[in-house]
Each structure stands twice: as structure tokens, then as C-alpha cells.
Design goal:
The chain is mainly alpha-helical. The protein is built from 13 helices and 2 strands. It is found in: Cell membrane.
Length: 340
């Protein structure tokens, strides 16, 4: 049952990155949109993420609950030594959701709309930035359980080139996902071309940020290259991601607006597999060679069995409901059109 729990943890992180990442990316796309096009971008973006923008955070909640219940030592360590980026990320989630709600449903349209817009786009950028920073910090080997001062314990554990570069890579990846998804959310050729240009921009940004991650890993003596290219799984995942990226751009120019979403999600899956496979089950790598393992540092066996059972049973209800939610909102415009 332990492996069932670990699988759910990995899938929850993947789905949050794919679905929540595209959600955050919509705000990032808006940030880099010219003023004349912002209103159209907002409308297209809201039509796309409106049905599920809040449901996406379910995956983050599931991941947190799994760590809290099933791996309390890991949860305690991360929430203690990485509490600053965690708080900033959570504040970004709250600010973004609040701004999105008020700017779309506020009864009074006034200058506060400008405030809501700024909060939305900045929090859409900050949240994935610190999500990536947290992920990088967990494997950077900078968390020092024996630190004797505030800076060493709570700042240097995450404020370093490697972690920050992963943060910017996550931002670029989210923007790329959003641009790819938004291509299929409009039927106007001019709008599709505009989102294709955004996808190109974010694709280049992701490549540059990814190169920065590898440069940082070399400079800070983190064996990222070995993790990625030192095993057959990593090499295969990188190869498949590269092939799918080429295929994605071919299909974009052939007007295949929906299959490209699957390919974009597949690329994110391969990236996550590549970066987690080699050092599994060590989810947190500590300073001076220590680590926290999903295999060795889990809770009581009875707790793991209960948690795994709850996840299996819960998925039977949650997953069909989520699929129906997305399907029903996609069908609604067509139904309304049919009624007329």
C-alpha cells in the first residue's frame, strides 16, 4: 500500500503542474500581452479556466495531505525549513483566486478593476516561481538540519541559483502550457496566431531557463546531469519529450488544436519523470549527504494502509466528478447555441 500512496503523491504533483500550471500560465500570458489585446486575452482565458480554476488546487491539497498524514517527518522538515517560500506561494494562490473572482464578479466596475488585474497577473507569476523554488530546494542539498543561525536555516535553504532557476523554468513551463491550451479556445485565426506566438516565446523562455538550471547545477555541484542522463529511463524520457515537442509544432501549423494539449501534458510528464526517477525514493536531499526517503521515512503501517485505501476509494468519486465538470462546461456553450 505504501507504493500506492507514493504513486498518488507523484500523480497529484503531476496533475497540479499540468492543470494548475496551465491555470497560472493564463495569468503569465496576460502579463506579457499588449494593452490593446488584454481584454480579449482575459475573456478567452476566463472561458478556458473558469470551470476548473479552483478545482485545480485539489491536487495540491491531496499532495499536502499525503505528506502530512503519510510522511510526517518529510512534511515537518519541508514546512519548517522552507516555510518562507511556502507562505509566499500560498499567499499567491489566495491573492490570485481573490483577484480573479472580484474582477469578474464585482458588482461595481471602477478603478479597483486595475488593482484586481495587477494582483491577478503578478500572483500568477509569483506562485509558480515559488513552487519551482520549493521543488528545487528539496533536492538541492541546501537544507541544513543542524543550522545554528536564521539565514542558514531559513534563507540559504532556498535562496540559491539552482532553486531560483528552477522557479523561472516552472514559470516558463506554465506559460507554455497556457499558450498551447488557449490556441484551442478560440476560433478566430488572428487570435490563434497570437497565442501561437506566445507559445513560441514561452518555448524559448523554457529552453533558456532549462539551460540555466543545468548551469546552476554544475556551479553548485548538484548531480542533475547524472540524474537526467545517467540512466536509461532519463535518456528515454528526454528523447520522447524532444520528439513530442517537434511533433507538437508540426501539428500546431496543421491546425490540430486539441491533440497538442495532450502532447504538452506528455512533455511535462516526461520532465517530471526525468527529474525524479534517479534520486527516488529520496524526496528531500539534505546538506552533508543526508536525505529523507519515501520508503524509510513514512508513518505507521496502519496509517499508510488507511491513507492508501482512502485515496483509492476517493478517486472513484473525485475523478469521474472532475471529468464531468470539465465536460459539462465545454458542452454548455453548444447547448445554449442549440436552444437558439
Amino acid at each position: 500500500m505504501l507504493y500506492v500512496v507514493i504513486l498518488f503523491l507523484w500523480l497529484a504533483l503531476l496533475l497540479y503542474l499540468v492543470m494548475g500550471g496551465a491555470d497560472f500560465g493564463a495569468g503569465i500570458i496576460e502579463m506579457f500581452t499588449s494593452k490593446p489585446n488584454k481584454m480579449r486575452t482575459r475573456q478567452t482565458m476566463y472561458n478556458a479556466i473558469g470551470p476548473i480554476w479552483e478545482a485545480n488546487h485539489m491536487w495540491l491539497i491531496i499532495a499536502i495531505v499525503i505528506l502530512f498524514v503519510g510522511f510526517p517527518v518529510i512534511y515537518t522538515t519541508m514546512s519548517t525549513y522552507l516555510h518562507i517560500p511556502l507562505v509566499i506561494m500560498l499567499m499567491g494562490i489566495i491573492a490570485r483566486g481573490t483577484a480573479l473572482t472580484f474582477r469578474n464578479y464585482d458588482a461595481v466596475i471602477d478603478d479597483m478593476q486595475k488593482v484586481y488585474n495587477k494582483i491577478f497577473v503578478y500572483s500568477s507569476f509569483i506562485t509558480p516561481l515559488f513552487l519551482g523554488i520549493i521543488a528545487g530546494s528539496a533536492v538541492s542539498g541546501r537544507i541544513d538540519l543542524h543550522a545554528t543561525d536564521f539565514m542558514s536555516a531559513y534563507i540559504y535553504s532556498w535562496l540559491n541559483w539552482f532553486s531560483v532557476s528552477i522557479g523561472f523554468f516552472t514559470v516558463a513551463l506554465c506559460g507554455f502550457l497556457a499558450a498551447i491550451y488557449l490556441i484551442g479556445e478560440t476560433n478566430e485565426a488572428s487570435e490563434q496566431k497570437r497565442f501561437i506566438r506566445k507559445a513560441k516565446l514561452m518555448n524559448v523562455a523554457a529552453v533558456v531557463a532549462g539551460a540555466s538550471v543545468f548551469a546552476a547545477s554544475v556551479a553548485e555541484h548538484i548531480p542533475l546531469i547524472q540524474w537526467v542522463f545517467g540512466n536509461i529511463i532519463g535518456i528515454a524520457a528526454v528523447s520522447l519529450a524532444s520528439i513530442s515537442l517537434i511533433l507538437l509544432w508540426i501539428l500546431i501549423y496543421r491546425g490540430k488544436r486539441y491533440i497538442i494539449r495532450v502532447l504538452a501534458g506528455f512533455q511535462v510528464t516526461m520532465i517530471l519523470l526525468t527529474t525524479t526517477y534517479k534520486h527516488y525514493p529520496n524526496i528531500v536531499i539534505l546538506k552533508n549527504g543526508g536525505y529523507l526517503s519515501l520508503i524509510n521515512d513514512h508513518g505507521a503501517d496502519k496509517t499508510i494502509v488507511a491513507l492508501g485505501s482512502a485515496l483509492l476509494i476517493g478517486s472513484l468519486f473525485i475523478l469521474p466528478a472532475l471529468v464531468y465538470l470539465v465536460w459539462s462546461f465545454q458542452r454548455k456553450p453548444q447547448n445554449i447555441k442549440d436552444q437558439h
